[in-house]
Design goal:
372 residues, mainly alpha, ABC transporter involved in vitamin B12 uptake, BtuC, 15 helices, 72% helix
Length: 372
C-alpha cells in the first residue's frame, strides 16, 4: 500500500474520529456541570453488551441503516431530503394495510406489501421533487411540511383502517398473517430475542446503492449533478429529471425503513409504532459520508449508544437522554470536522505539488545572459 493511499485512508477516518472525540468531551462536560458521574456513565455506555443487547443493536442498526441510505441518496444529488420520517410512516402504514388484508398468500403477500411501501414512499417524496423542479420550492421546506401532513394523514387513516381490540387503548391495523411475516434468526448464542430477517434485505439495499452510484451511468450523472449543476447542464444532463428521480429513489428507500419492525416484531401499524427514525438517518448519513460501509458503521454506533443508555436511569440515576446530547453533538461536529480535514488535505496536496515542482527545476548553473 502506497503512502498516498495511506494518507487518503487516514484523512477519511480523521473526521469521524475528531467528531467522536469532540462529542465525548462535550458530553463529559455536560455530565460534570450536572453533577453526574462521568466515569460511571461512560463505564456503562462502553461496557460489553449481553447477547440480548447485541441482538437489539443489530435490529436497531438495520432500521437506522435503511434510513441513512435513504438520506444519502438525496445527499449525493445535493438534495436535503429531510422528509424520510414522514415518508416511512406513510409507507409503513400502507404496507401494514396491504399485508393485513392478505389479498395474496404467504410470501407473495409480503412482497406485495414491500412493493407497496416503496411505491408509497416514492410517491410521497415525489411531491417534494415535483415542487422543486416545477416551482423551485426548496426540498427542505416542502419535506418538513410533508412530514407534518404525513403524521396527520396516517393518524386519520389509522382510525379508518383500525380493528377494534376490546380492553386495549392501542389503535392498530389488522395483524399480518403468520405466513406473511419475515422470520428472525438467532445470531448470538443465549439471546432470548432474534435478529430481524429483514437485515438481509437491508444488506441488499446497501449493495444496490453502491452499485448504482458508482458503477452505472445514472450514478455518474447523479454525482456529477450534485457536484456542479451548471457543469451537468453543460454536459447535456437533464438536471430536473435527475432531481425528480433522485427524490423518488430516496423516497422508495425511505419506504423500507419501518418494515423490519413491521414484519419482524410489531406485525401491525399502530399508534405506538416507532417514530423519529428518519431524523436519525440524517446524522448517520453525515457520519458515514454517504458511503454504504460508513453508513453501516454509523448505524451500529447510534444503535449501540441507544441500547447502552437504557439502564442509566436505573443504575446511575442519569437520564438516558444524555446519549441524545452525544448523538446531536456528533451531527454538529462531524460537519465541522469534515471541513477541517478537507482543508488540511488540500494543503497537503498543495505542498506536495510545490515540492514536486521544486524537484523538477534544474539545479545546475545557467549561462543564459552571460556575455562572451
Amino acid at each position: 500500500m502506497t503512502d498516498q493511499r495511506l494518507k487518503r485512508i487516514a484523512l477519511a477516518a480523521a473526521a469521524p474520529v475528531l467528531a467522536l472525540v469532540a462529542a465525548f468531551l462535550i458530553t463529559s462536560l455536560v455530565l460534570v456541570v450536572a453533577g453526574d458521574s462521568v466515569g460511571g456513565v461512560w463505564g456503562q455506555i462502553l461496557s460489553v453488551p449481553e447477547a440480548r443487547g447485541l441482538t437489539n443493536i443489530v435490529n436497531a442498526a438495520t432500521v437506522y441503516y435503511l434510513s441513512g441510505v435513504a438520506v444519502a441518496i438525496g445527499f449525493r444529488m445535493n438534495l436535503f431530503n429531510i422528509g424520510v420520517d414522514g415518508q416511512y410512516r406513510v409507507a409503513s402504514f400502507a404496507a401494514a394495510v396491504v399485508a393485513g388484508e392478505a389479498w395474496l398468500p404467504g410470501w407473495l403477500n409480503t412482497a406485495a406489501a414491500i412493493l407497496a411501501a416503496m411505491l408509497v414512499g416514492a410517491a410521497w417524496a415525489g411531491i417534494a421533487g415535483l415542487l422543486r423542479v416545477t416551482r423551485g420550492v426548496s426540498e427542505v421546506i416542502s419535506t418538513i411540511m410533508l412530514n407534518a401532513i404525513a403524521t396527520a394523514l396516517v393518524a386519520f387513516m389509522l382510525r379508518k383502517a383500525a380493528v377494534s381490540d376490546p380492553g386495549s387503548n392501542i389503535v392498530a391495523t389488522k395483524e399480518i398473517p403468520e405466513g406473511s411475516r419475515i422470520p428472525g434468526f438467532t445470531l448470538f448464542p443465549g439471546a432470548p430475542n432474534q435478529v430481524y430477517g429483514f437485515v438481509f434485505l437491508a444488506i441488499l439495499v446497501g449493495v444496490a446503492y453502491w452499485l448504482v452510484i458508482n458503477k452505472t451511468r445514472f450514478g455518474f450523472d447523479l454525482r456529477a449533478t450534485g457536484l456542479s449543476e451548471s457543469a451537468a447542464v453543460a454536459s447535456g444532463i437533464d438536471v430536473k429529471k435527475m432531481v425528480l428521480v433522485s427524490m423518488l429513489l430516496s423516497g422508495a428507500a425511505a419506504g423500507l425503513v419501518g418494515l423490519p419492525i413491521l414484519f419482524g416484531e410489531a406485525f401491525a401499524y399502530g399508534s405506538t409504532f416507532q417514530s423519529g427514525l428518519g431524523f436519525a438517518g440524517i446524522a448517520i448519513a453525515l457520519l458515514g459520508r454517504n458511503h454504504p460501509i460508513g453508513i453501516a458503521l454509523g448505524a451500529l454506533l447510534f444503535a449501540f449508544l441507544d441500547e447502552q443508555s437504557n439502564p442509566l436511569q436505573i443504575l446511575l440515576d442519569v437520564s438516558p437522554d444524555i446519549v441524545k446530547i452525544t448523538q446531536g453533538t456528533i451531527v454538529l461536529t462531524v460537519v465541522i470536522a469534515y471541513e477541517v480535514v478537507r482543508r488540511y488535505g488540500v494543503r497537503l496536496e498543495q505542498r506536495q505539488v510545490a515540492a514536486t515542482l521544486d524537484d523538477d527545476r534544474p539545479t545546475g548553473p545557467t549561462t543564459e545572459g552571460v556575455s562572451r
